[in-house]
Every structure is written in structure tokens, then in C-alpha cells.
Amino acid sequence: MLYAILCYADEETVFAWSKEEEAAVMGRLYAVQEPLAQAGKLGPTGRLMPTTAATTVRKGKEEPIVLDGPFAETKEALLGFYTVDVETLDEAVAFARQLSSVNPGSTAYEIRPFYVFHPGSVTG
């Protein structure tokens, strides 16, 4: 089953890290990711730029409205994601727990099953 593991964090904390702090956190995250990557279970991962770099397209009454930045006002923001192909939700939860334990900037990891859509087919 494919799962998206969404990382929520306090942007002020994460983007205030020094280069050394950033490198240390990324090293710990890499150590957690490596076993899944070696097993062929880790798909694309990514860190999103700050919400100040976001553009939101929101439904309007007649036409979609384009806004600078995120629409929601919240302390924690979606900061990155992992895709994993694991047998069970328990395996995805275990991975998210490991990520959480080594990432001092994260506030939550949300896990959602998902399907990949390709023109003419559905897999997942």
C-alpha cells in the first residue's frame, strides 16, 4: 500500500536553523530513511519552501482567485512529505515515529494512503 507521510512543523523553528543544525537534522533523517530506501520502499521525498513562497488558487464565486501565500493561518505548516510503499499502516506509523524522534522541528506526521493516477490506469 502506498502512503504519504506529511510532515508538519513550525516554520520559524526550522528555517531558523544554522547550516550546522540543518546538516545534523538531515543526517539523522537520512539514517532513518536509508533502511526503507535500501528495501525499495521509500519513494520521492521533499521539503517544501516556506509558506511565504506559496501561491494559492482558491475557488471564487465565478472565477478562481490567486493569492500570495497560504490561505490558512496556523502556527504549524506542511513542510515536507515522504512516499512509502509498505505492507501495513503499522509499518508506516513505525517509520513516522522514527522520523519524529530525530526531527526536532516537526510537530506532527500525518499518514494517508494514496493512489497514483496515470492516464488510463489507477494503481495503489
From TrEMBL:
The YCII-related domain is annotated at: 1-114
InterPro entries linked to this entry: Dimeric_a/b-barrel, YCII
Q: Which family does it belong to?
A: Belongs to the YciI family.
Q: What is the protein named?
A: YCII-related domain-containing protein
| Source organism of this protein record | Pseudorhizobium pelagicum
